[in-house]
Amino acid sequence: KAVQVSVGAGHSLVLMESGDVFSFGDGEFGRLGHGDGEHQYLPKLVEALKGKKVVQVSAGRYHSLVLTESGDVFSFGAGGCGQHGHGNLEEQPLPKLVEELRGKKLVQVSVGMSHSLVLTESGDVFSFGCAYCGGRGHGDQQDQSLPRLVEALRGKKVVQVSAGGFHSLVLTESGDVYSFGWGYRGNLGHGDDAEQHLPKLVE
Asked: How many whole angstroms separate alpha carbon 97 and alpha carbon 99?
């Protein structure tokens, strides 16, 4: 029985009630998690995640993140901007624990075009990957290959994160929404097209 699905640019992830993950589609960059770049025309069990009891999956353009019941995050796929969070830019064809996040008790993951957001139980947000247009919320234009706390959101008790192509939104416990990243055609909600490199309240 399937309980969650997530679709990337050319691949799909399906989470089963048992905690197993199946993937299919374009296998380039190892984004399917099977240890190779082969395309999969039928759903195939991600063997490397068996027994890890996954509770959430998120597929991006060329990489994927999964969250386990214990609050750990595993990532696989492209690493050209550091978007898999392992401190390097190499492809990761098999799911690998994001060591930098170990022990932080994560409750949600969201993958964008080439950046990743993770949310902790305490309401902190960590981001990593491509710095294009500021979608990571650190106020700079440096790619980040290791998870980094979004300092501007500290103390705001975030309860949900969502990563888009090159922008991100977060929802706080008080019901406020903050956005950051690419402002093209108003997708940040601030009434203009400007990039926003730090989280800004959507007034």
From this structure: 6
Between CA 159 and CA 171 the distance in angstroms is: 6
Q: Judge whether 74 and 96 are in contact, CB under 8 Å.
A: yes
Residue indicated by tokens 């500290």: 154
Long-range contact set of residues 38-46: C-beta below 8 Å, sequence gap at least 24: 43/14, 45/20, 45/21, 46/20, 46/21, 46/22, 46/95
pLDDT tens digits, one per residue of 54-100: 999 999 999 999 999 999 999 999 998 899 999 999 999 999 999 99
Calculate Rg over the CA atoms of the chain: 16
Among 197, 118, 100, 105, CA closest to 161 = 118
